[in-house]
Amino acid sequence: MSPAAIEIDLLIEARWVVPVEPHAVVLDNHAVAIDGGRIEAVLPIAEARAAYAPRERVELGEHALIPGLVNSHTHNPMTLLRGLADDLPLMTWLQQHIWPAEAKVIGPEFVRDGVELAVAEMLRGGTTCANENYFFPDVIGATYRRLGFRAVVGLPVIEFPTAWAKSQDEYFERAGEVHDSFRGDGLVGTAFAPHAPYTVSDDSFERIRVLADQLDIPVHLHLHETATEVEEEKKKSGLRPFQRLQKLGLVNDRLIAVHMTQVTEGEIAACAEAGVSVVHCPESNLKLASGFCPAEKLRRAGVNLALGTDGCASNNDLDMVSEIRTAAILAKAVAGDAAAFDAAYALRAATLNGARAIGLEDRIGSIEPGKQADLAAVRLTDIETQPLFHIASQLAYAAGRHQVTDVWIAGRRKLAARELIGLDPTEVLAKAHAWRERIAAFS
Amino acid sequence: MSPAAIEIDLLIEARWVVPVEPHAVVLDNHAVAIDGGRIEAVLPIAEARAAYAPRERVELGEHALIPGLVNSHTHNPMTLLRGLADDLPLMTWLQQHIWPAEAKVIGPEFVRDGVELAVAEMLRGGTTCANENYFFPDVIGATYRRLGFRAVVGLPVIEFPTAWAKSQDEYFERAGEVHDSFRGDGLVGTAFAPHAPYTVSDDSFERIRVLADQLDIPVHLHLHETATEVEEEKKKSGLRPFQRLQKLGLVNDRLIAVHMTQVTEGEIAACAEAGVSVVHCPESNLKLASGFCPAEKLRRAGVNLALGTDGCASNNDLDMVSEIRTAAILAKAVAGDAAAFDAAYALRAATLNGARAIGLEDRIGSIEPGKQADLAAVRLTDIETQPLFHIASQLAYAAGRHQVTDVWIAGRRKLAARELIGLDPTEVLAKAHAWRERIAAFS
Fold first, then answer.
1. Under an 8 A CB cutoff, do B337 and A289 touch?
2. A53, B120, B161, B244: most buried, per Cβ within 10 A?
3. Domains in chain B, ordered, with CATH?
4. Which residues contact B238 (CB under 8 A, 6 or more apart)?
5. ipTM value greater than 0.95
6. What confidence tens digit (pLDDT) does each residue in B287-343 have?
7. Cα A27 from chain centroid?
8. Chains A, B: CB contacts under 8 A, how many?
9. Which residues contact A103 (CB under 8 A, 6 or more apart)?
């Protein structure tokens, strides 16, 4: 160490660093210097050792260090309903299983315990940020904040009474309160979360448009999930849901359009031009038979495409490593082109594009100086990822989430050699088991 | 233990046993009694403790015990080419990457070391049987036998010279020799493996038809993998490849038709009637943009549908747990029906249907008295599979292959608490690394 070495909190030395930006680059034997939760520099290990005097040094000699994965669409309290009902037609599943179960359990405790279980699962799989969409965003946000996990929590708006709010005005009142309570928070932000065009009125959408501008937050919306949704709207308003949103002024760079399995060439062009982000949830779309999102067409048109798992009641996991693989291979088949949606792009969709979708591209999504140190280390020496010819290929097509060994959020270690830090797995599992007993008793 | 207790080799006590046959059944707190490599009985733990005096007893209090998974289509020596080239059009990938690499390395050592790496991976993922399709079946079979792994090795027939054989006659000669050398082997059997209709002549197919009957072995064939394959054959012979095989008398219950992404209603009915087995390789079909196999239609028509990973150069893994999930969710989307191809059926496809495809349904594929004790234990208490409402759902939609903790083949433990038995992972990895260096030097 040179006498002029700069003191920093943490130096992570990795066999490979995949910064995502610049695109498709793999840095051999590089280190990431971190101070105050921020990335100070990315440089060769030898240079880093000469330049810095870290208070902590971590060696990852068998690992690729990647940006923490961004799950751009999820309903994490529903992790407690994982696998409650499967293999059913969509409406039977919702009306006879999921909604009745929710009605009996929903409330602050359910939401808190569901998010805890989800955080444990996400950290063990390299995810460091969730774009959340569920009731009780106050409790959801507080839970993420307490656990030191990064999230954007949706402020729900839906045209019928729920346990969260009873009237349109109350949804908006509570949205304002929750937004205010997280103003300036380093980890938890907010977005408007109108449920879907078929459950939200023009009036509410107009209020959301004005308020989202005022508060400078995204609008997180299920859109064109199925062909039925599009047909029903056309019967009602004569417009496709996307057209209706265009008319209402919501097709802009705040819009996070989730699913988009039904999309015309014109709509793709409009998304690209307006700066709309599309969140592709390939495993949910397959499992619910929702349809096939033309992910490669969206990518080629220059639309910002992010990835999400959707909730555990439908998917049934929060495995973004698997979602990367499914997105990449499904996009090829849908495009009829084995060269489509390559490994490096799939990783970008799960990181930097997600960050951009939720308005955090200046803070997270890539390993660049000035950004928050949200990082995941993937061990590539396992039998399942050998021999190793190309890092991006191995990450996208062969690695499993259990090969994630270490995770940091804002420079704080959250997973160390696969052990959760700041979260007792025994306690998390005990709560999950208690909810299971309660739910199984009536379902 | 009662004084009249019967001495047996092994008693495995599991929190759940999923026998696959009877279908969709989960047995709570059951034990499997094993002697001489065979399953003696499946019964409640308390009864088993009274009835048997096992020389070894294994308690799996957090696990589901399932039949070992049957990978019904793979090219395991190619595990050494995992991720060598990806994200390329099919012909570029084959002609500029895979074939040149193969040409430089193929031979007994490559094949042996590739199968070793594959066995290590398969065991760590709950797979206990592989339907193999590659050159040097003598070495492949000998390697499986040495490692105590169950396999059917393909006897290659292709209409051009390779490192394995130089002429049609030599392919058949060598096929006969290899078949004879494994006659009566308890673990390794053989099948004819004509490569594909576009690389095999009518004359060879006719010889195979006669010989397969004489030797009583299956015929393992890539068929209707892509639309191009079907179109090209129609240009050449005026027939679809399937029609040509019908004419040649090969559409019968020996036929293992792999891929079948292009299939008419008539062909589905013909497969069901003739007892053809179809091997669906969903992840390979997606990644190579080969097309969408109508798996649910085949299932409904009563076709025996099995699952395979395909080789690691294309997939890029031997993960049958993931293949179960992908098969189930993809089938729903292709059928447009979320109730299609349910979890219990997906597990059956990966076990008993595979056994039937390769002519081993009387020996493996389910946990039934009289069958070989090929078993895998999946730990379901991990955060990723909690809460737990339904075992089959958790196995198909949430569990990862790393949750497989213990594996037996013919009653012999091959994986114990995730440690490989009889296979040194350090040695396997060192060989993989050496091949990687050699291949990377010229690719």
1. yes
2. B120
3. 6-67+374-410 (2.30.40.10), 69-357 (3.20.20.140)
4. none
5. yes
6. 999 999 999 999 999 999 999 999 999 889 999 999 999 999 999 999 999 999 999
7. 25
8. 202
9. none
